[in-house]
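Translate sequence into C-alpha cells.
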Amino acid sequence: MIRVVCLAAALFFSFTYSFACMQGMRMLSDGTVIARENQSLTIPGGSVLVHQNEKVLLRLDSLWKAKKDITYLTDYALVLVVNGKYEEAKNSYLELEKAKPDQYTTASNLGTVYELLGDNKNALTWIQKAVQLNPASHDSSEWLHIRILEAKIGGNKFMNTNFLLHTDFGRDSMPASELSKTELQHLRKALFYQLNERLTFIHSEDKIVAQLLFDLADLSLLTGMNIYQVNDLYSMAKKYGYAGPLWERRYTNAKQLSQKINRGQAAEIPLHGAEAHTPEVNFPWAIILSICFLIFPVLAFLYLKGRLNSHKED
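Result follows.
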C-alpha cells in the first residue's frame, strides 16, 4: 500500500513539474519580465511583450559601459526589441557579435531583427549562421524559418505549401497526405513553433502567416487534433488573409465534422489513409491529480493506523 502511495505521489509531482515547464516567462538577468508566453500547445498566439520604460534602458546602457559585462548589453538589446526599437537593437546585437563572436543567441536575434526591419537577405544570412551554430535550436524547426525568408525574398510564387513545407495536402475538402502520421506530427510541431514565435510580432494580414495557419489547420485535422481547434485555425488563416475556394471547402468540411460530432453522428475524425483517431478530449488533469494527492495522505494514515492497531492486538 505504501509503495502504491509513494508511486502515485511521484507521478503527481512529475505531472505537476511538466505543467510547470509549460508556464513560460521571458526575463532579463535581474528577473524583470519582458514577455509572457502563449500557454496553448495547439493554437499559436505568440508572446505578450511587456514594454519597458526608458529608465530601464538607461540603467542597462550605463551598466554595460561601466562594467563591460555582456549580460547588460544582451538585456539592453532585448529591451530594445520589446520596445520596438529595431534599428537600435540591430546595432546592439552587432556590438554583441563584435564583443563575443559566433554566439547562437546573437546570430538568431540578429536574424529576427533584420527581418523585422524588412531586410530579409541579411535576416537569412544570420538565421543560416544560427542554424550552423545550433542545428537543434527551436526544436529543430529553424529550417522552416529559412524557407520563410527564402519565400519572402523570392516573392509570392514561393509562398505556398509546396515550397514552405516540402509537401502538399491536395485540393479536396478533406486534406490528404502521403506522409506518415509521425512525419505529419513532426511537421505540425515545427510549424506550430515557428508560427507561435512569428505571431508575437505580426498582428495584421500577412500572406505567409495566412498560408502557414491554413497548413497548420490541415495538419491538425490530419493528425486528429480537436476539431473545434481545427475550426479556430481555419478562421485564423482567414483573419490573416487566406481566402479562396480551397479555404471554403476545408472550413465547410471541418464545420460539418464538428456538427456531426455534436449530434453524436460521428465519434471520430477521419485521417489520411485508413487511419482514424478519436478527437482529443481535454480533461482537467491538474485538478484530478491535485484531489488524488490530497486523498493519498489520508489513505496512508488510515493504513498505518490499522497496522498499529493490529500490532497492539497481537
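Note: Residues 1-25, 272-283 have pLDDT under 50 and may be disordered.
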